Fold this protein.
Amino acid sequence: MRTFLAAKLHGAVVTEANLEYEGSITIDPQLMDEVGMLPYEQVDVFDITNGARFTTYTIEGNPGSREICVNGAAAHLVAEGDRIIVVAYVSLSMEDVKQHKPKIVYLDTANRIVRRASAERQRTKAVLLN
């Protein structure tokens, strides 16, 4: 088994940083559904604005709110208005890799979807040989 990108919310804007919550990242469930992220799923967050990177888990916010709220200690690593990338991963067998296409959604500054993509697998010699 190898680990691959499963889902990505690219260019999301942090709508709130809440130190008083236990932890996690709150995401509008409509955005989560677009890429197949699930509640309590482990994700990595990359802050485009300041370069911070951290691992957390998702929780559902209010449907249609377009909220992206970083909670708990990780709120020290972001600020409201920061642009971030949220990614989830999947473990795949080499056979499953051949059909795998990550779901990627690009967001504008109001966390509205501006483009959907399913990344094409870039074949490497190792993948072709297996």
